[in-house]
Amino acid sequence: MDEENILITKILRKENLQEAADILLRGDTLIFPTETVYGLGARFDSDEALQKVFRAKGRPADNPLILHVANASWVEQLAQDIPPQAFELMEAFWPGPLSLVLKKKDHVSSLISAGLSSVAVRCPSHELAHQLIQAVGLPVAAPSANPSGRPSPTREIDVMEMVGKVAGILLGGDCEVGLESTVLDLSTDVPLVLRPGAVTTQQLRRFLPDVRRYEGDPEGAPSPGLRHRHYAPDAQVTMLRGSDRALKTFIASAPKTSCFLLPSRLDIAFDGVRTIAFTPQGLLEEAAARLYALLRDADKAGMKEIYIAEFPLEGIGEALMDRVLRAAQYNILTLEEI
Ligand code: TXA
Ligand code: MG
Fold it and tell me: What is the pLDDT averaged over residues 299-316?
């Protein structure tokens, strides 16, 4: 970034909520917490403010932004031809980690939709995010607050890396879910999960029996975000598949520059090799909440390879394994029993 583009960043907490809202209202960028990951927001009705979001992230302009609303009643000013199921889903899952892609109204900037005829909307459940959007009184456009291509920020320490790139950072502790929202496309005939999240495809199926996961070629993906390299740390990530015994044998002979993210039942001290147990209570939610933080920490610790054990696909495991596989660029190592 050019020297002249470095911004003075205000660090704010919940006591300074109005100041945070004012930053957005005057057309500047603000990082704020949500229950999924931190977002990098701008007011939705100013192209100049939206440009600042793309600039701060180094984000390609062909990747659209999600609009954050305070409640479902705001959606009708942003979208048209809204199918009845959309309202049922808002009722069932909002506020919460579900983004709905709907046909956009004309006034929604093409910077938000990246030239598409649709717009993604979501109503976050995080208390501070909610109060912020209320105080702004307008939808807030926000992608995740990471530089493009990096893991999304889920902790205060992660967003501090954006100091100098945004006008304000509203701190709100750790993000509870830790993975980005489910993105569900309702703008075409077949409802499609473009990105799995904490609201699972199985949960959606109760409302949309014909909902499908988008499983196609990332190059031809209907959600531009799926085309870009994503969620990746600097270290080489590999997903490990195999029995507990095979995993333990593999870890025991790994170089010291490797680290392992494992379910806690496998947390055994290995000589000098860093193993990180990320399910203290044996829950998939814990692994999901800590994944990005650990990828970032492994980079900071100078790790060259990160191996992540395979987790079951049930519940949030669907989203967890989606992000792990993307970070690993679909690199899977299957360990044979010896
Ligand atoms: O949990 C979240 O969704 C977080 C927090 C901050 O709310 N936001 C987030 O935004 O993850 P972002 O920009 O990193 O991811 C949005 C995803 C991208 O994959 C993008 O391509 C897709 O949603 N998306 C947005 N608008 C779309 C549209 N009109 N059609 C298809 N995909 C869309
Ligand atoms: Mg993102």
Answer: 95
